[in-house]
Amino acid sequence: RFLHTSLKRCNNRLRYNVGCRLYTTTETRKKGGQKFSVVGSGPAGFYTLESLLNTFPDATVDMFERFPTPFGLIRFGVAPDHPEVKVITKKFETLAQNPRFRFFGNVSIGTDIKISELLNHYDNVVLAYGSGAEKKLGIPGESLKGVTASRQFVGWYNGDPEFSNVSYSLSSIQNVVIVGQGNVSLDIARLLLRDHSDPDKKIFSKRKKTFLENLHQSDIVQPALHEILQAKNLSSVSIVGRRGPLQSSFTNKEIREVLNLDNIQFQVSPPESIDESLFDSIDLKSLQSDRTKKRMIQIIRQKLDDQKQISPTSTPNPKTAQLVFQYFLKPLQFLGDDQNRLTGIEFMKTALVPNTTNDDKILIDTGEKVVLNCDFAVTSIGSAGKKIEDVPFDEKKGVVKNVKGKVEGREGLWVSGWLKTGGSGMIGGFVIAIKQTDHSTN
User: Fold this and answer.
1) What's the pLDDT score for residue 359?
2) Among residues 245, 239, 131, which one has the least CA distance to residue 185?
């Protein structure tokens, strides 16, 4: 009865609340068949929906989302200058028109409705609410002014309601350090570094629009766009990783895009000098089994070689800023002044050495420390799931405890997406995770 009342209240709230969209069609839903509920409306939720509708022809599926609008990570996590990634929402909108599906937004599971109540009213419940918690470094100074997490920064410029009260002042920043070498780090670096008056090379039309013109037409929120445009004093962005280039999580498409910016001077460096031998020492023959990594090394090498060919007498671009890939540095602490403002980050130099027990290499501290001066830092080391009610949860891995998608010890409860596998990988990786989830109800 409580669930029925809650759904009726949410249904009415969505129908009459401006800005909320109810995807339920006007067709009568088929009676009979299994009833599923999916918690979360991001990529994992909609790929789960697709899997359920295809696997169980007579089943009905209700989806619950804590925000009024669907699409989760695609809406609030994709860089605004990558609208092509959001095209997948058209497929999700088509799925949402299925008469066997209903969407209930603005409903918080655990607060508005309990998991136990869902299990009492549905044959099976699938948790697919993703990895909403930012992993922390857990080192001193992480709360200093000028230190932020990538999830908060990305949510800020994408209009995530969770960060509606967050603001940044970027007009005075000069040196940025991003801790973590994944695609989100490249997204942030690209938005901060790019000369917004440059033509957008991804647009193929008779009149090339500038990057700024396309940003204005994107999903970026206006206060964030205003602040990003104020970052005119930026002189360097360093993207730092604990290990070497082969252990970074960049994709080649993202690397190529940021290295093609016209107004950057690219460096690959241990902190005290430009050490291009870092790449010269890599034997490409050893990478034959990993063509993606091999291509990544070639892209970076080519950029470094191209910069050597630039004549020293060439007129420098006054808007040029440095982009530095820093390897083999482990953060120890954020440093601040007497006003609690960030001034730099202390790192420990690391090295990869052979493992005596197998062919893998292990990371060790060298004992040598170094400080990178900066006035703005972003931690981007991944995300983790959030524990909900009494659902079995692995705090260390940030995932719901499960066996092939079936939650341990909870009959009828399943898990899918990053909440099942951990918060890493590209959006397309959700499909693999969903296909690996056993939706059998036997």
Assistant:
1) 62
2) 239
